[in-house]
Amino acid sequence: MRKGFNAEFKAKVALEAIKEEKTIAELSSKYEVHRTQITDWRKRALGGVKETFKGKQGKVNKENEKLVDELYRQIGQLKVENEWLKKKAALFDS
């Protein structure tokens, strides 16, 4: 049967793994969690720390990506409308 662990427990174990005061094997025995799981939690915790310090820059980049996507969508729509208007104008010029 699979054990479920809450976020607080995962954070506690991950922090102990990061401190390296005990080996992963010792932590595995202490908390009855597989070594691979502890290693994964440790990596995720360290990755989360990096994201925390990115701050506004990461948020700004995501907002810029959304803006660029929206602008490309609008350009595509305007191209379609422009071609349609050119065809209709050509009918009136004939």
UniProtKB/TrEMBL annotation:
- Respond yes or no to whether keyword Zinc is given for this record: no
**Does the entry feature the keyword Coiled coil, yes or no?**
yes
Coiled-coil regions listed: 61-88
One Pfam match, given by its short name, reads HTH_Tnp_1
> Which keywords fit this entry according to its UniProt record?
Coiled coil
Q: Name one GO molecular function term.
A: DNA binding
Q: What Gene Ontology biological process does one annotation of this record name?
A: DNA transposition
Protein name, UniProt field: Transposase
Organism of provenance: Candidatus Scalindua arabica
